[in-house]
Structures are given as structure tokens and as C-alpha cells.
Amino acid sequence: MLGKVVIVGVGLIGGSFALALKGAGAARQVVGMGRSQEALARALELGIVDSVTQSAAEAMAGADLVLLAAPVAQTGPILAALLPYLEPGTVITDAGSTKSDVVASARAALGAKVSQFIPAHPIAGRESNGPDAALAGLYQGKKAVITPLPENAAGDVGLVAAAWRLCGAIVHTLTPEQHDRIFAAVSHLPHLLAFALVDDIAKKPHAGQLFQYAASGFRDFTRIAGSSPEMWRDISLANRDALLTELDAYLAQLTVLRGRLAAHDGPGIEAIYTNAQRARRAWSEAIESAEPAQPQIQEPE
Amino acid sequence: MLGKVVIVGVGLIGGSFALALKGAGAARQVVGMGRSQEALARALELGIVDSVTQSAAEAMAGADLVLLAAPVAQTGPILAALLPYLEPGTVITDAGSTKSDVVASARAALGAKVSQFIPAHPIAGRESNGPDAALAGLYQGKKAVITPLPENAAGDVGLVAAAWRLCGAIVHTLTPEQHDRIFAAVSHLPHLLAFALVDDIAKKPHAGQLFQYAASGFRDFTRIAGSSPEMWRDISLANRDALLTELDAYLAQLTVLRGRLAAHDGPGIEAIYTNAQRARRAWSEAIESAEPAQPQIQEPE
User: Fold this and answer.
1) In what residue span(s) does the Prephenate/arogenate dehydrogenase domain sit (chains A, B) (predicted)?
2) Helix H or strand E segment including B67
3) A53 and A69 part of one domain
4) In terms of CB atoms within 10 Å, which end of chain A has fewer, N or C?
């Protein structure tokens, strides 16, 4: 049982975490904190939190667990604001889509007390945002990745893991660097590629005609280009190095494929397509056999 | 009312066309033709066709409409086999995913009688294939693109349009060149890009770990990489010039974006992402308001 839990940022991510813990009867008290009084009021109204405050002193007093669920760029300023009131027994964690930059901000803001900061990233989301989008079941069956620091105490890491398990998540552990490389490849790069394609098409003189004939293949491929441009700009910048590495590898791949196409190399093209199809189908089958039946929730991870 | 309709290739595309016409009571007689005796027997068994033959003479005698629904690479050989028995009143059409190459093959095979060939492309499909996959409603509400030749008689073009409308499709007209450029951009390139990404990831040493953390964004983006590698190799080669043009434009776009990422150009990155998101959402809303409620059928067009 967690005692006092503080949610900094009462939107989709923080709100769902709060609802899940409350639903599990796992928190004695949930306090909401954030910049928007309107969001805080709405979270209170919806029963997502028991009380709200914009005072760090009030929030941090006797806090057991603090979840940072605000844009990753705010990590440093938020931690700096909390630091004066950070008690020795309090564990702080986050939910940011990138980890190395968050860790660097945390080290800069907290100094030695970074030992109390357990970086994490729940892999879940929806296209909607704000407190009204929060769902108690958002994390059910989803992965939550913890990227512990060498300074973290095992018990504190365990507390964060336990909290995510109470939300129904399956906890995985990676280093911040592993996390950023993995998500650069399977999440950040695809988003960049989809945004790039749709912008490319939209800027063509006959764009209207192109969109007129775009069908379900295009729809699936570009769905993630409907995501928040600001959030993905931030993620792209935050994970820039890993993303550049992945993008460069992909550009090299496209150059090879371009060469085979230009050379009319059917077997060479087929080799790439076949390997991809086999891998995609194997992955798809593994996913389907592993996942329990879930509601249709998008994961802009 | 169509009299004798011949379907060359009794798989998903040809079979669904036959079922739709039969369902509309629009064909007096449907004859199946093809290379696989097994597929023909199955189509007969399923009631997709009224009779089957592997004799061009038998198939073409008194035929009103002939649909080529075989791989586009077989266009030339099939037309050459039909030519000796092609009667003046018969209209031949096709369903190929590319048009300029099909037109070239048809001109080479039929000579002056290319006037009787009306190139077309129904934009519909499913991940399954063969006669068992055929559905009478496959084309309901979908687009069918006709790319008439200068030599085609208006009445013959009208016959093909009417046939597709009887299947429930909405008929559009483009030149073969317009068709190939449009579908290079919104269909063929996305397939190439998805295959390239999945192959790239699958070849990495830590591919297993990457697939482990891939979630719904990756799933949507790479869904079309589960498509037939042979079919897409053929489409890529058949539409090579237009596809190279689109791929080169996209490579240029990625190079620009890479530069902005390397330069930490947040506003520059956001500009591309924002333009893409707006275009994607506008298109998505236009699609949703235009489409009638439809069964969930994939369209690997």
C-alpha cells in the first residue's frame, strides 16, 4: 500500500496512473499538482485525485511516491522546484518517452539526491489528452519500462515496479541508453518517417488528387502522423543521437533498395520484401498469442 | 445485362468480380479460365463461375466481357493466347495494380485490336487470396479506376464502367500515366518504405529485443509489410520509373529532416510534423464523412 502519492501533471498519463492506483485501493491519498488550474480542477471533479495544490511544499510533505507526468522538457524545472521540499524517504519517478535526457536533467537538478529518482516509461497512451482522457485500465497488460540508475536503492526501484504492477502493467528493465536506442528504432523513427511522407505528399501541387486515391494501406502507414507535432518534435530532439543513428541506417537501406530498383534487380528487391514479410508476420503472431483481449486503445509510445 | 463474362484468374479479384455480377443478376453466364486446375475446380465448387475451361477458343466464343485478373506480368502472354479467338464485339479489361506497363504489354500483344482492351484497376483487396477468399461485396463502395486508351470506343469504356458499378464500385477515370504516378506516391512507395524498415530492423543483432518493444505505432506503420513480397516486387518493377521519382523526392525530404534534426532545429522539425498532422487529420475526416459503414476489409491496392 502506497501512502501519499503525488501526480505532477494530471493529464492522460498521470490521471490514468492515479485512477489505476485508486481503483486498486493502493494509495491512501492522491494529490494532483501542475501548472494548469483548470486541469487540476477537472481532475478533482472527476475523482482522479483527492486534492490538488500548486505548492511544492504542500505536495511534498510526507509524500511516498511522486510521478512526473509532464512533458519531458519540464523535468529539470519541476525537479528543481520540488528539491527544497524533497524528504529522504520520498521516491520520485517519471513517465517520459525518452530517458537519457531525462536522466541528465535529473542529475543536474537533484545532484546527489538523484538517487531518489527512478526513471521509467510506461508504454501506453491514447490519441486523446487531458484529465478527461484518463482511464483506470490504460496500463492493463501494457509494458512499463524502468531504467534504474546506479545510485538507486533496490527497494525504491521495487516500489516503482510495484506501483506499475498495481496498474496492471508488466515491468521490464533496461538501461536509459538501451531504452533510447530501442525506442528510436521501433517508435521514434517510424513517427519521423510517417510525418515526413505525409508532409512530402501534402506539399505536392496535386496533393488533393493524391489524397483522393489514398486507401487503407496509406491510412495504416500514416496513422501515427496524426500524433501531436509538439510532443514528437520534443521526443525527436530529446532522443536526437539515437534517432540520427537509426535514420542513417534506414537511409543507407533505402539507398540499397533504390539501387536495386534502378537496376531492375527483382531477386534483390524480393529478398528485402520477403525477409520483412516473414519478420512482420512472425512478430504479429507472437504479439497475438501473448496479448490478452484488450480494448482498442492507441499507444503513441 | 452482360451476356457471357469470362474471368481469367479465379482468385480473390476475379472471383469477387464474378460473385458480385452473379449477385446482381447481371451476367447470363460466367466462365472461369486460368492456369490452375485446382483453383478452377474450387471456383466451380464454390459457385463463383458456371463453367471452367483452359481452352481460349472455348472461353472467347461469344464472350461479351473478359476480365484479366491474373498477375500483371502475365498480361502479354494471356492476351497473346486470347488474340486468335478475339471476336470484334468482345471487350477485354484488366484489374492490374499498374497501368502503363499493362498498356505496353497489351499494345505489343494485340496490335490494332488494343482498341478492345480497356485498362482498369479496382482499388480493393484482402490479405487472403484464392477462390476461397472471394467476396461478392469486396468492391462495394470502393473505387474502380479506368484508364481508357485513345483507341477505346466510348461504348466499350461505358460497358466496363457499368460492370464495376454493378459490383458496387465508384468509377473514376485517369490516364495510365496519372494512375501510375498517383499510386506510386500513395501506395507503392509506402509499401516499399515499410518493407525496408522491417527488413532493416530484422537484420540488426538485437532484432528480437527491438520487436519485443515494438507496439501499436509500429504495428500500424508496418502492417503493409505483411503483404505478398512477390506481388510487391512485381508492382515495384512494373511501376519502377514513377516509384523511383517518388522515392527520390522522399529521400530528399528525409535529408532535409535529417539536417534539421542534426542542427537541433526544433521549429524546422515542428513545421514538417505540423503540416503532416494537419493534412493527415483533414484527410482522415474527409474519408470518414465520405465512406459508408463498411466491413473491415483490407485494401492492399
Assistant:
1) 3-291
2) strand B65-68
3) yes
4) N
Could you report the predicted ipTM of this complex, rounded to two decimals?
0.89
Rg (CA), chain B: 21
pLDDT tier at A222, thresholds 50, 70, 90: very high
Radius of gyration of chain A (CA): 21
Chain segment B53-78, per-residue pLDDT in tens? 999 999 999 999 999 999 888 999 99
Per-residue pLDDT tens over the stretch B99-119? 999 999 999 999 999 999 999
Residues A196 and A284 in one domain: yes
Residue B255 has pLDDT above 60, yes or no: yes
Q: What is the mean pLDDT of the segment spanning B94-98?
A: 96
Q: Decide if B253 and A199 are in contact by the 8 Å CB cutoff.
A: yes
What distance in Å separates the CA atoms of residue A227 and residue B274, rounded to the nearest whole number?
A: 9
Which domain range does residue A49 map to?
2-174
Q: Please check whether residue A299 lies inside any domain of the structure.
A: no
The label of the residue with cell 543521437 reads A241
Please check whether residues A154 and A62 belong to one and the same domain.
Answer: yes
Cell numbers placing B291: 465512406
Calpha distance B299→A220 (Å, rounded) = 11
Mean pLDDT of chain B: 94
- pLDDT bucket at A292, cuts 50 / 70 / 90: low
Q: Evaluate whether residue A294 is within a structural domain.
A: no
Residue B300 lies in a domain: no
- Distance separating alpha carbons of residues A140 and A128, to the nearest angstrom: 18
Q: What pLDDT is attached to residue A126? A: 79
Q: What is the structure's pLDDT at A294?
A: 47
In this structure, the answer to whether residues A10 and A83 fall within a common structural domain is yes
B122 to chain A: which residues are within 8 Å by CB?
none
B11 and B155 share one domain: yes
CB-based contact B47:B210 (threshold 8 Å): no
From A196, A250, A264, residue closest to B200, measured CB to CB? A250
Question: What pLDDT score was predicted for residue B300?
Answer: 46
B232 within domain boundaries? yes
How far is the alpha carbon of A223 from chain B, nearest alpha carbon, in Å? 7
**Residue in A196, A202, A251 closest to B279 by CB:** A202
B283 interaction partners in chain A (CB closer than 8 Å):
211, 214
Q: Which residue of B has its CA nearest to A231?
A: B270
Q: Of A174, A197, A230, which residue sits at a domain end? A: A174
Q: In A, residues 168-227, which contact B (CB 8 Å cutoff)?
A: 172, 182-183, 185-187, 189-204, 206-207, 209-211, 213-227
Concatenated DSSP letters of B81-140: HHGGG--TT-EEEE--S-SHHHHHHHHHHHGGGGGGEE-EEE----S--SGGG--TTTTT
CATH code: domain of residue A77: 3.40.50.720
Report residue B300 as a C-alpha cell: 492492399
Reported as a single tens digit per residue, the pLDDT across B178-231 is 999 999 999 999 999 999 999 999 999 999 999 999 988 999 999 999 999 998
Q: Are B196 and A272 in contact (CB under 8 A)?
A: yes
